[in-house]
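User: I'm putting together notes for a lab meeting next week and I want to include a structural view of one of the chains we've been expressing. I don't have a solved structure, so I'd like a prediction I can at least talk through. The sequence is below, exactly as it appears in our construct file.
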Amino acid sequence: MVNRKILLKFIRDVCNLVVLKEKMNFSTLYKFLEQLHKNNSKEWMDTHIGAYHSVRDSYIEWLDEMNIKLAEIDANYYNTPGKKAINRINNNLMFHPNKPIYKDHFGAGLDQKSKQGDFYIHLGVSESFIGGGYWHPSSKTLKSIRQAIDYNGEELKKMLEKKTFKNMFGGLIEDTPLKTAPKGFSQDHKHIDLLRRKSFAVSHQLTQEEVMGDDFKDKVIEIYKEMLPFRRYLNQAVTV
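Assistant: Thanks for the context. Below is the predicted structure for the 240-residue chain, given as structure tokens.
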């Protein structure tokens, strides 16, 4: 088995070998996205492809740094390099033909293990936030979460009612629940309020000023730590 300290040192050393073109400038990232939002076309992107790659590469390098920092504070963190974490900026027009060609945000998922909920960072024109959990999961995944709640819903409720958790996220993201109890559960189940839910996700809204602040990395780590027990509860539910 690979020694964890050696692995972290290796990842850090590899990142240190990368010659940074420019330190991540989130102001530049937002300005690029604002221009893309106003000129959402392949023709505009083709003439600004250099600016896109410059912003994207800098953001990937920033994600690499966060990947290392989060691995240092979470023994079960799943190594997710920036190139793997970042999402495509192209919209999937096959399934959403009415959407614009490009997204007006950069999305990235750290601690991204296959078939589990990641730690999602969304930086965009209309909104920026950090979220995690499962939003409209498959019926199979939802069934697993409900089984975990049936077995030990008290643990999840304790997390949701924790003062620091409520201050950070407010609670679960609102979604239209089932009108009655899901199949296999009684209407008078003690956790029926949770069992009727179709999504289990939280988010912390960010201002552009916060993202551009010198302490943004510390803020990301603070949010990660507060969200971690919630994410681990759900991820364990869908893998057990």
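A couple of points you could mention at the meeting. DSSP finds ten helices and four strands in the chain. The longest helix spans residues 49-73.

User: Perfect, that's what I needed.
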